[in-house]
Design a protein that fits this description.
This protein is 23% helix and 21% strand. It is of the alpha/beta class. The protein is globular, with a radius of gyration of 22 Å.
Amino acid sequence: MHQTADVVIIGSGIGGSSLAYSLAESGLKVIILERGGYLRDSVEARDDVAIFQRGFYRPAEEWLGTDGESFLANNYYYVGGNSKFFGAVMYRYRKEDFEARPHLDGNSPGWPCTYEELEPWYERAEKVFQVRGALGQDPTEPFHSKPYAHPAVPDEAPIASVRDRLKRAGVHPASLPLAIDIEAWLHRAKTGWDAFPNTGVGKIDAEVGPLTQALRHPNVTLMTGANVSRLETDETGTRVTAAVFVKDGFEQRISAGIFAVATGAVQTAALLLRSASKAHPTGLANSSDQVGRNFMNHNTSAMLVLDYRRNASVYQKTIAFNDFYNADNDYRAPLGNVQLLGHITGNILKANFPVPAPSWLVRLIARHAYGWFLTSEDLPNPESRVMVREDRIVVNWIRSNMRAHQALIKKTKNVMRKAGFPVVLTHTFGRKTTSHQCGTARLGHDPKTSVVDLNCRAHDVENLYIADASVLPTSAAVNPALTIAALAIKAGASIRGV
């Protein structure tokens, strides 16, 4: 079977769905190929035992580390991609993230564009993801041409108290920008949303937000269960002619005028490498030898603080502080972001407890606990990369800038103790954690050192676009979802010629 379209988008996550939304009113025939299916509702969707202890939704796919050991990839393949499980934090990169600047263990190269150039696209992305937020609370906050359309998700009473305590400790707690309709989320069940699957409309993920709007147009269609194995080009290698995919056990092809890959930083790099040909012997769009390189993944830790008072919150995840995000006075370098995790129940804590412990003890600890998520920038390194060997994905993540992350942990511990939390525990996530993956097909002006231009079009292939976290030149130290969406919407405008 051979189909045709004007635009084929591979992947329906944040980038693919945002690109489809940007193209929907163009009249172009857009077909989205998604390897997964719809995430259906079930009793497990809000069951913390099923999710965190039994691993009901845990993906079975394994990738290979360069140490020869396999590890669970934790990539989700559903309509909406990984955003079905995301924490819904929709930060803009800070103005300083677009500029070259020194870190404790290296330098960030900055971006080939400024924050001001991307700002209008951030505003459009916030609109389609219905981001809730508040301006004027965060000293690192970049310029916003318009206020948030929706007020910030309200603090629960225990979190409002934590906000006040943090202020007294000398930092600037600010409302997280969240793609959450809190009333709709809590109507389904009284849980947090961090790592819980979205089977309704409470979390405005890629499916609920941009994809739903795109599919309202008859020229946009979605094909599920379509796993793309490679892209084919003409003899010159300057144009993609077909995407080859497997659906229902049969290999099929689809041709189009334009192709966009949006399967995530690891899978996109793997697809381009698997699409090697006589015209592209080292992988499609890879004359720069940058496809798969500069893999970044954020340096992250969880921090658990205990309080004498009970934490009676349900969802918890409404505040963060960025006082150490830019040049810290003690370390003279950027350190990172500190944000609340979703409320940690006894069942969630037991699933992650470092040693065997009775359930009553774990539940007692959880009742007095607040979880925080600490993020520091991972710097690009060409030897930190994604490869394909005998059709297996191989990841070599070389950590960077860990001195900054350790400094962030130290500074945050001091803040928590000043705020009156007597016990502070931390766990730094390992080298094979693959959340916030980015950077394997970097954006840039120079075809010798980058894979795509500022409109996300491949330098080497005139009708190929990349619309996901692969193109991010730096990882910054905040959640990348909104930046992915902004770039994808911008790419759609370029394709439309506006």
